[in-house]
Design a protein that fits this description.
Elements lengths: L1 E5 L4 H12 L3 E6 L12 E5 L5 H8 L4 E4 L10 H16 L4 E4 L24 H15 L5 E5 L3 E3 L8 E3 L12 E3 H13 L6 E6 L1
Parallel strand pairs: 1-2, 1-4, 2-3, 4-5, 5-6, 6-10, 7-9
Antiparallel strand pairs: 8-10
Pfam families: NAD_binding_10
Organism: Paenibacillus chibensis
Protein name: NAD(P)H-binding protein
Length: about 210
């Protein structure tokens, strides 16, 4: 497939980039600073662009079979998530790209008690603004007329390799026998590219964890 990735310089974005290339997809990575992406591959095309600019999104997603966003704002700039969501929806709509897949946050997933993770007493206060921004951005995608898919990770996202031994869910937080919800970036990337190649959660959200 011919795909575009935004946020390819981040930890999750790099994992997605490598997973997509390993499966022989043609990848355009859109970054603000091309010097920050050192990955080299014959099927990788690195271009300068801005996820916050709908015209830039349109330019770099035209004719693509899928558009992936692993964009994450800097601490203190959480509101940019909403700006990015609006820009992606508008730019992808203009370009006519076939699908939009977004890696978001875990905070809006429901616990076994039916409460959003971000609303539980133990949720870190310093992370709440980012979780709230992700939840609000999710609403923007869910109200769009695109073929979108939103992937919420486990509550603990660890930089690590792909094992392929993860579970898939929908709106509830997945935990192991000790009540821990976690996944590696490698497996999160695998879950996303699996969904891109074999669509199941079109116009819906899903989650992946061990």
């Amino acid at each position: 497939m011919n795909i575009t990735i935004f946020g390819a310089t981040g930890t999750v974005g790099q994992a997605i980039l490598r997973e997509a290339l390993s499966r022989e997809h043609e990848v355009t990575a859109v970054v603000r600073d091309v010097s920050k992406l050192t990955e080299k591959h014959e099927r990788l095309h690195v271009v300068q662009g801005d996820i916050l600019d709908p015209a830039s999104v349109e330019e770099h997603t035209r004719g693509r079979e899928a558009v992936i966003s692993a964009y994450g704002p800097k601490f203190g700039s959480e509101a940019e998530l909403l700006e990015a969501a609006r820009s992606l929806v508008e730019g992808v709509r203009r370009s006519g790209a076939e699908r939009l897949l977004v890696v978001g946050g875990a905070g809006s997933l429901l616990t076994d008690e039916g409460v959003r993770l971000m609303d539980t007493p133990s949720f870190p206060a310093e992370v709440y603004p980012l979780a709230k921004a992700h939840a609000d951005a999710y609403e923007i995608y869910s109200q769009s007329d695109l073929e979108w898919t939103y992937l919420s990770p486990a509550s603990v996202l660890e930089d690590g390799r792909r094992s392929g031994n993860f579970r898939i869910g929908i709106d509830r937080l997945i935990t192991d026998e000790l009540g821990v919800s976690r996944i590696t970036t490698g497996d999160l990337a695998a879950a996303l590219i699996d969904e891109m190649e074999d669509p199941y959660f079109v116009s819906s959200r899903f989650t992946a964890a061990y």
